[in-house]
Amino acid sequence: MHMEFGKRLVSAETTGAGVRAYFDDGSDAASDLLIGCDGVHSPTRSLIDVKAPPPRYVGLLNFGGYTPGTPVGEAGTWHMIFGARAFFGYVPHGSRGTVWFANVPRHLASREERDTTTTGHWKRWLIEHFERDRGPAAELITAGELQLVADNTHDLPSVPSWHNERMIIVGDAAHAPSPSSGQGASIALEDGVMLAKCLRDVRGIGDAFRAFERLRRRRVERIVAQGARTSSSKAAGPFGRIVRDQMLPFVFRYVVTEKSLAWMYEHHIDWESRIMPGSRVA
Known about the structure:
There is one protein chain. This protein is α+β, with helices and mostly antiparallel strands and 282 residues long. It folds into two domains: 42-55 and 156-265, FAD/NAD(P)-binding domain (3-Layer(bba) Sandwich); 56-155, D-Amino Acid Oxidase, Chain A, domain 2. It is 37% helix and 23% strand. The chain contains nine helices and ten strands. The protein has helices spanning 43-48, 111-116, 119-130, 137-143, 172-175, 184-201, 205-234, 238-255, 262-265; strands at 9-14, 19-23, 28-31, 34-36, 56-68, 79-82, 87-93, 97-105, 145-155, 167-169. Helix 6 (184-201) runs antiparallel to helix 7 (205-234). The longest helix has 30 residues, at 205-234.
């Protein structure tokens, strides 16, 4: 296997024998197929379909950081707080400190704003969103360092074309859930295993791609929809926050349960089983 890093895909074309990819440094590479696992802003998606939908901004800016020193919270447990103005999560990192993140409802941050706003400014702005809330958010941010700054949160609800005869997209390139779902990496790994099975068991690359989509689309789009609902609860207005806070105890006791989410968290792919014609996954 030959691997190269630091190259950005700019175009690709199918050939009689496969596909040829062209990169921004002027180089190119040929193969039997091209798999675009290149994220929510995937260039491969547009190469497959010039009318492919762009990612959708879900109304949240993402921040992440680390606070060294005394760990805060119960070991091995993520603590989640719906604050008055933003959402905060944290988990102790062994005995060395605390990892945390924040989701702040706001309009999308432009490239110019991200390039010209200092990390110190973002940090002060972030502290203001939590200083009136109970819990350790403001203290953790004050004593910590920002490692992810003003990341615009996107999802990708439904992409009509995942593939052509030689190129295919997987993971966030095809079906990006909001980070609020906590499932982005999981379903991307599932994609990798399932695509490998299809290429192993189904004769012909095009037919293997079609089998992969048939087996995956329903599940991943359901997860994206679940993530969108979670994100909307973090970006609720004043009245929506009141309703949300009143409903959350009921929801977590009777609706969002281990049993009700088993379809998402207990999904299993049997590597040894064969992909059969017409087979489907719920």
